Amino acid sequence: MFGPRFILRTTSVPRTGSIDYMYAGLKGADGAKDIIAAILDRRNNDISQLILSHNSLADDGCTLLFEFLASDAGRKYRIQKISLNSNGIRDRGLASIVTFLKGDTSLKELFVQNNEFACTDPSLAKSFAEATNLSCLEVLTLSTNRHLGDQFITDYAPFLDSPSLRELHCSAMGITHRSVPILVEYFSSPCCRLETVKLNGNSLGFRGVRSVIRAIEQHNYTLTSVEMWSNNGPGSEVDNNVTQDEDDDFPTHGTWQENNAALIPIMQRNDHLGKATRKEALELLRLARTLLLPSHRIDPSLAVFPFTQLPTELQIYVLAFLSPTLSSSQRHRICAYASSFATLPRRYELPGNPSTSSSHTNAASTAAKGKLKLLNSLGCYFYEREVS
């Protein structure tokens, strides 16, 4: 059988932007040293991915690797994806990952499934959640870490409030019906900004899955992909999480296919609302930028009724008619962003600037003038109602 050093030489020229040492026979600290040497050998810092799955780095290798990545020398490599699946990493290695995440601004995808994490110290799970919140992670895969289970969900989910995290994979982690109330609370909270969640192969139970579906239907509008297949394993038989008042809404009979079918219209609803929200938010930002910047002067020919002389609250109320899908808090944040010079991109040119003469700018200006006429008429109507 070939030794790891020989295998490393055969893979020492990975594809551009990636160091791929999957199944390379890397072991412990020596394996981490080989990875670090390969990173340092790369010119122009052009590394975006570390693919290190199915080795045996364990705690020693993981700790040494992430200590390097967290150093000044390591930070200059803007790595966006790290895969450490099946490396026998335990809690000490996870703690080094947590330390790295707290100061990182590049990593977007972290795959650490099928390791030996246990998080026997609740503070580690809490620190992991807080580090996730501070990071730029968009995808986090923890599946098949079977030693985590309910205790990890209890210690992790209540502190998770990441503005960037969009995918969370927690399949086959030994999660039972005891975690259902915590999952329900998290999915119902504004802190949950996930778009994809995977909970396959756990033991939530039929009623537990129904409880999660109901929470998403009533309170969550960001999730567009939810998987909860094969959740009838050991630990799912006893379910005391559903109160007596909910018994009529949660039948004890049914099929997993029916549960999945119940999710489809909810996911379609959230997908539609997400697209509409993004579209309306962009349209509102464009117009609010034109109208609400303090120094901008409206074209005198359009000032039949001076919209910008209205109280700010009434301006935002009128603008709301152009973005019916957005909530009042969303509109307020967009208008606050649009009215600040600090949020302008560099070399920004205000509408009407003589140096701006492209056809695109002229078309945008024409559209803005048309909407401004509408807003002036609406503003006049609501102003007359306000003073009468």
TrEMBL record:
GO terms for biological process: nucleocytoplasmic transport. GO terms for molecular function: GTPase activator activity; small GTPase binding. Keywords: GTPase activation, Leucine-rich repeat, Repeat. InterPro entries: LRR_dom_sf, RanGap. GO terms for cellular component: cytosol; nucleus; perinuclear region of cytoplasm. The keyword Translocase does not apply. The keyword Phosphoprotein does not apply. PANTHER family: RAN GTPASE-ACTIVATING PROTEIN 1. This is RNI-like protein. It comes from Pleurotus ostreatus.
